[in-house]
């Protein structure tokens, strides 16, 4: 088997991995019961799947310039994926889009309840868990 | 006199911005895919213009950077990424039903915005954990974790977040951050991180030994 | 020949993933579910484009990958912000439908003003 064939085989294997991760994410996104769980499923092809696909491309690259072009793709994806994940997660939690019966522990709700209880006792504004100074949270409960 | 102080301040500000500028130029070169005099020059110009036009508060770098721990962090991150991806892929198709989740508050040691941000990014990039809220004042991360059927699993997630923070602090944390982690390790009866002479002097001074 | 068959299989798996994502986009039920599925769709698309480049041995769509990786999160962040704002009293929904299109811009402005006004 020649070196080129080995590289081809390697590329195909990495592409298989990327495809299977995407498929598992698809299954997860359909099967999981609430948005936050689905979010976890969706992050797989975003990072590891992308890494696999880019490695497959890199194995076929004929010069350094192509490999160099792959680095910013991964860099941007790794910088931006957590931003959208966090924003969706935060919005999902705040707008009660998650199934609380599936949470066996919720320390954020505990912290919010405690802040409200303290505020009621001392008759002050609730000192909510830092959440956000940029939005009105005085009436915010999970 | 005051002119001299602002001169020094400006020079320090430039030095603190230097990593950002270098990263922007490298990104520019990667986008072009070749290194010539023209592309480097335009890269420097674009980086300067961008940092002037879209001015952000400068990031507080500690001035420490450990290449060894940076590589160790990257390696552990890659291992975590693969393991967690396979695990979540399995949970997605697990015929026994869907996983039970939890939201847990993780108390970080650091007060640094940069380390908190990097920790939150690393946690969110790994499938199975997601930062839903951040309490900046108290250095708390609220992490939504997938597949935590019992208390032991919850504590494992909490521990893994703290381990990620520890690796990042070892890479680029300030002396104060390292001290905070060492204090907790000593309190828990574990050996502290290997100390440099400078770090030991700092900790001795802080603890009044 | 074997390899070409393997590429076909990879393509079919990607297609199945895309169908599942589209199913979630159609079904919803909330807009967040749709955005998550859209995110996943874009990620799958990036991987599939890479697979196509490997199969046909070219690099012409690399810039497309780059732009998708850079900008895919913007829509999600916008929608997430909008949903969070909508939940508040005085958010876009309370202001009525007329404010619908301007709500995004309002939300962004709110950010800088309401925090200081509340103190």
Biggest sheet features of chain C: none
**Helical proportion of chain C, percent range:** over 70%
Counting structural domains of chain A, the number is: 2
Determine the number of helices of chain A (DSSP H or I, runs of at least 4 residues): 4
Unreliable spans of chain C are 90-119
Span between N and C termini of chain C? 70 Å
Q: Which assembly state applies to the chains in this document? A: heterotrimer
Determine the structural class of chain A based on helices, strands and strand pairing: mainly alpha
Task: Spell out the key features of this protein.
heterotrimer, A: 72% helix, elongated, C: 119 residues, mainly alpha
Walk me through the structure:
The complex is a heterotrimer of chains A (142), B (209) and C (119). Chain A is 72% helix and 3% strand. Chain A is an all-alpha fold. Chain A has two domains: 3-103; 105-142. The model of chain A is unreliable at 130-138 (pLDDT under 50). Chain B is mainly alpha-helical and 209 residues long. Chain B has two domains: 2-53, no CATH class; 67-206, no CATH class. Chain B has seven helices and three strands, in the order H-H-H-E-H-E-E-H-H-H. In chain B, strands 1-3-2 form a three-stranded antiparallel sheet, with helices on one face. The longest helix of chain B is centred in the N-terminal third of the chain and has 31 residues, at 2-32. Chain B is globular, with a radius of gyration of 21 Å. In chain B, 33% of the residues are buried. With 119 residues, chain C is an all-alpha fold. Chain C has one domain (2-112). In chain C, helix 2 (31-56) runs antiparallel to helix 3. The longest helix of chain C is centred in the N-terminal third of the chain and has 26 residues, at 2-27. In chain C, 34% of the residues are buried. Classes of the chains: A mainly alpha (142), B mainly alpha (209), C mainly alpha (119).
């Amino acid at each position: 088997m020649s070196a080129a064939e080995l590289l081809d085989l390697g590329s195909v294997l990495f592409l298989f991995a990327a495809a299977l991760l995407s498929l598992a994410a698809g299954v997860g996104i359909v099967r999981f019961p609430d948005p936050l769980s689905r979010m976890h499923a969706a992050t797989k092809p975003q990072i590891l799947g992308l890494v696999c696909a880019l490695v497959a491309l890199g194995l076929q690259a004929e010069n350094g310039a192509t490999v160099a072009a792959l680095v910013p793709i991964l860099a941007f994806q790794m910088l931006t994926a957590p931003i959208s994940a966090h924003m969706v997660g935060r919005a999902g939690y705040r707008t009660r889009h998650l199934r609380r019966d599936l949470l066996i522990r919720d320390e954020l709700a505990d912290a919010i309840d405690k802040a409200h209880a303290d505020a009621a006792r001392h008759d002050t504004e609730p000192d909510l868990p830092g959440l956000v100074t940029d939005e009105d949270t005085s009436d915010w409960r999970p | 006199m005051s002119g001299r102080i602002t001169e020094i301040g400006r020079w320090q500000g430039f030095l603190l911005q230097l990593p950002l500028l270098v990263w922007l130029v490298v990104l520019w070169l990667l986008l072009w895919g070749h290194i010539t005099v023209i592309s480097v020059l335009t890269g420097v110009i674009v980086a300067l213009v961008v940092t002037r036009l879209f001015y952000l508060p400068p990031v507080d770098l500690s001035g420490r950077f450990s290449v060894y721990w940076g590589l160790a962090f990257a390696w552990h991150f890659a291992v975590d990424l693969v393991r967690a991806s396979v695990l979540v892929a399995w949970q997605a198709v697990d015929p026994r039903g869907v996983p039970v989740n939890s939201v847990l508050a993780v108390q970080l040691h650091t007060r640094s915005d940069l380390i908190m941000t990097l920790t939150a990014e690393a946690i969110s990039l790994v499938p199975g954990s997601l930062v839903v809220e951040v309490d900046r004042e108290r250095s708390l991360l609220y992490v939504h974790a997938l597949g935590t059927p019992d208390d032991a699993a919850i504590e494992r997630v909490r521990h893994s977040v703290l381990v990620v923070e520890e690796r990042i602090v070892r890479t680029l944390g300030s002396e104060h951050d390292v001290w905070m982690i060492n204090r907790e390790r000593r309190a828990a009866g574990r050996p502290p991180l290997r100390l440099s002479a400078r770090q030991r002097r700092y900790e001795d001074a802080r603890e009044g030994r | 020949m074997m390899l070409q068959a393997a590429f076909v299989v990879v393509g079919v798996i990607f297609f199945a993933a895309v169908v599942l994502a589209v199913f979630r986009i159609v079904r919803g039920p909330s807009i967040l579910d749709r955005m998550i599925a859209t995110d996943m769709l874009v990620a799958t698309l990036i991987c599939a484009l890479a697979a196509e480049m490997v199969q046909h041995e070219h690099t012409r769509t690399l810039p497309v990958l780059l732009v998708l990786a850079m900008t895919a999160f913007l829509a999600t962040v916008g929608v997430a912000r909008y949903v969070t704002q909508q939940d508040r009293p005085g958010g876009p929904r309370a202001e009525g439908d007329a404010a619908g299109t301007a709500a995004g811009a309002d939300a962004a402005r709110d950010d800088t003003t309401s925090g200081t006004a509340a103190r």
